[in-house]
Amino acid sequence: MKQFSGFEAKKSAGARELLPAGGYVAKILNAEEVSYDWGNVLLISFDILEGQYKDFFAKDYKEQDREDKKWRGTYRLSEPKDDGSEKDGWTKRAFGNAVWSIEASNPGYHWDWDETKLKGKLVGVLFRNREWEMNGNTGWTTECCALTDVDDIRQGKYRQPKDKPLKVTSAAENSFAQINEDSGELPF
To answer: Where is this chain compositionally biased, Polar residues type (predicted)?
Structure first.
């Protein structure tokens, strides 16, 4: 075998640790409005502030050895479009709940439509298990799916969010190819 450049014998980082599903007290590190072709979101970046998983996302970020490091402690809050649709009504309720959660967690703070003032605020974050699919592979991860107030987290007065499996489609059910049992000569 010919030696190749850049070789280094070292232990693989392996699979990264996942934050278990549940509720956590977090500190908001950044909040910014992000625009997509389909609409805007308020991107809230945070880290765990208390308990066994304190600084979980900072440690995760430092352990990433790739050039395209990602901060994984985020919550994307869709902004309402104000179009009167049923989906818009749901988006408005979710936005209102998120703002209430931040206000309730930070006595004296009142939302004034300046997202930069969210930095340093506390909030309860709820994580659920979510199944993913990429290039035909599937697996499970956890994601922040909702915000709540920190007192409910500290007192354990929150409902654990349900797992979110992939949606089953009829195409997936019929995606198995028929195998001809007579495969001729095998190459091995």
So the answer is: 171-181
- Its pTM stands at 0.80
Express each pLDDT in 79-109 by its tens digit. Answer: 999 999 999 999 999 999 999 999 999 999 9
CB atoms within 10 A of CB 144: 20
- pLDDT(140) > 80: yes
- 53 has a pLDDT exceeding 60: yes
Which CA distances in Å does 32 have to 58, 77, 97, 116, 176? Answer: 19, 10, 18, 7, 44
What average pLDDT score do residues 4-14 get? 64
- Dump strand ranges (E) for the chain: 22-36, 39-48, 74-78, 122-134, 137-148
d(CA 70, CA 53): 18
Q: ∠ CA(130), CA(135), CA(140), 5° rounding?
A: 20
Nearest-angstrom CA–CA distance, 123 and 27: 6
Question: How far is residue 45's CA from residue 71's CA, in Å, rounded to a whole number?
Answer: 8
Which letter, b or e, does each residue of 57-68 get, where b requires 16 or more Cβ atoms within 10 Å of its Cβ?
A: beebeeeeeeee
